[in-house]
Design brief:
Helix 10 (227-240) links the parallel strand 6 (213-222) and strand 7 (244-250). It contains 13 helices and seven strands. The chain has a single domain (2-296), classed as P-loop containing nucleotide triphosphate hydrolases (Rossmann fold, 3-Layer(aba) Sandwich). The protein has 297 residues and is of the alpha/beta class. It is globular, with a radius of gyration of 18 Å. The chain has helices spanning 14-27, 49-53, 65-70, 80-83, 87-101, 127-134, 143-148, 168-176, 194-207, 227-240, 253-261, 265-268, 276-296, and strands at 2-5, 39-43, 118-121, 157-161, 179-185, 213-222, 244-250. It has a seven-stranded parallel sheet, with helices on both faces. The structure holds adenosine-5'-triphosphate and magnesium ion.
Length: 297
Amino acid sequence: MVIACVNHKGGCSRTTTAVNLATSLAIGNEEYGIRRRKVLLVDMDPKGNVATTFGVDKRSVGPTMNELFARGVGDTSLKLSDCTLGPEVLTRSMRNAWRSHNPDKKRGPPKHISVRNLWVLPADLDLSGIEVDLATRVGRENRLKLALQEAMDQFDVIIIDTPASLGLLTVNALSAADCILIPIQAEFYALEGMGQLMGSIRDVQRSVNPRLKLFGILMTMVQSRSKLCETVTEQARKHFGDRVFETQIPRSVAIAESPLEGAPIVIAQKPSKSNPASQSYWEFAREADSRIGSING
Ligand SMILES: Nc1ncnc2c1ncn2[C@@H]1O[C@H](COP(=O)(O)OP(=O)(O)OP(=O)(O)O)[C@@H](O)[C@H]1O
Ligand SMILES: [Mg+2]
């Protein structure tokens, strides 16, 4: 199953949500009843934030999404596996980031700072140039789908992070996806762009990808006891009914700081009452896991 994490509004937790969902589905969690899956996390945003969240130094990565994406039809000179960062690389860079963030802790990073079953396909800034270049080519909406063909049999779940626009990179993600996950920041203008987003989704459904479905809507950066957050959530529920996940992600300093520490919050902190941010992403993963199960039949 391919899930695209989409919302053209900037800073609404797209990357944070894509990274934490991919990570928790890959690690699995007995307590939450989430079984382990082999997951590929694809970055379609030229900002390249996905790799950074795992403490990966972008200058050190080899060929990226860019090379794979720019490939001509039928060009087999580069394989997907040449461009992905595997669980060992991700674990090593998270542990290195932990060490540089905690220079006085001599015992080194705790055991849980590690990941398995997760591969990242990173992006870098040149991807925006490729987007411009691609605009005049035949089959421009299907480049990502083509690039991911190899991955379809190798992974149980593929999650795609997208940029804050409805341009060609996002359209490529929508045409490669089975489902769309929309994170919405619980704030005043949040629902204003939704009509435009739904319009783009319908366009893609009509023209290139009729099987595209709505996976769900996740309310993010929710402030407790905020009347505004409650109102926005209520409106979202009115429009989208039970497509809105029960779980809400709270606004939390721990989530904002976790990229600095070089590990997604679901790895950095054990889910518990005293770590509500990690707990919320694990609860979301449990809901997502059961939706994947029901969609797959
Ligand atoms: N629940 C949260 N509480 C507090 N800060 C958060 C939360 N979720 C994300 N952030 C922070 O808000 C910023 C934007 O989040 P993120 O990068 O996930 O959003 P995005 O939609 O991918 O943004 P962009 O448009 O830049 O791609 C980041 O600095 C992130 O660390
Ligand atoms: Mg982002």
